[in-house]
Amino acid sequence: MPMREILPGVFHWTATHPKIHFEVSSYWLEDAGVLIDPLIPPDEGIEWFAGRGCAPAAIVLSNRHHYRETAELLERFEVPVYCVRQGMHEFTDGEPVTAFEFGDALPGGIATLEIGGLCPDEGALYLEGRRAIVFADGVVRASQSDGPLGFVPDSLMDNPSETKRALLEAYGRVLDELDFDHVLMAHGGPVVGDGRVQLRAFVESGGRTAFEL
Fold it and tell me: For 161, phi and psi rounded to 5 degrees?
């Protein structure tokens, strides 16, 4: 899917992940120059960012698995990369990654939240000024355009029933504590406009879903 502006100053695109061979989602916050969970956009290429009014200033990972093509981007743009401390054990080859703690504020007005359940570094990025939240791997979407919210396959969970319970509790807290309309995910297309409504329905249903990735 080519890059498209899904919210004012927020761009979304998809690319095939070189390891898992699925299309995954990445995001660009134009005014702040922040890349979230980036793969290089296949149609526009890396130079697309160099031509923007605000060049890349930072890369933020929603969890440790989303380093993706950050190394290639760092060859072109010297910017800091941020990952939560609980995921820093992933980076043992000298990757220039800076640790943050859940609750810290990051570039682009991003507030960081702990989700847990799936893994200790499972988190969310709250884009308050954009009324949006980015989830890492706990909740996904089968389609890049529409379709229901769901969980990753049970095979990716150590204890599926306990993991799902913990994730649903975390999403319930997010719904109670934060004000947002849009749900953006690393796996599956963003839910723009009624993301909060869909997430509430997902939680209240107990996470029942008709698909598995």
Answer: -65, -40
